[in-house]
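Hi U.,

Before I forget, here's the chain from the pilot set. I'm dumping it here mostly so it's searchable later in email.
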Amino acid sequence: LESFISALGQAMGAAGSGNNRIGNVLKEACVVNATTSQQALRCLANYVKTHGTWIEIHFTPMALVISFATMFLDVPVAVFYFTSAIEPLVQYMGKPPSLKERNGQKEGYRKHSLLANMTVADYDDDIVKTVCQIYHVDVLMMQSLNLGNVSRCVEALL
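Structure:
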């Protein structure tokens, strides 16, 4: 659920993603007239569900990214839980473990205040269900790997 919020920020022009064309479409459809982050999140989840994850690369399910990266070959892939693996990787690259260069909460990083202030607290049961349906393949993958907590999605998909 956190990843979807991050993907929304990237898709709508966060640092490094300002040149895509779908960002303005998403903003006009769901953000400009929204008065709360929850309204925007609901609209955006429904937009992606209706139009598909293919409309913007950041919406691609992780399971598909892994499949494309391996060219569908039967090769071993190491998958790590992000929060426990990131600090050692950042340290290995000679950076402080607390470094957060891509921080959606940082002022000016996201182009609209509703996006900057959007958190998992904005999810209600219906939005959770919609996002979990969009990323059902990732829920199954993460559940089978015992990777992260997908219990909200598992419950929503019952």
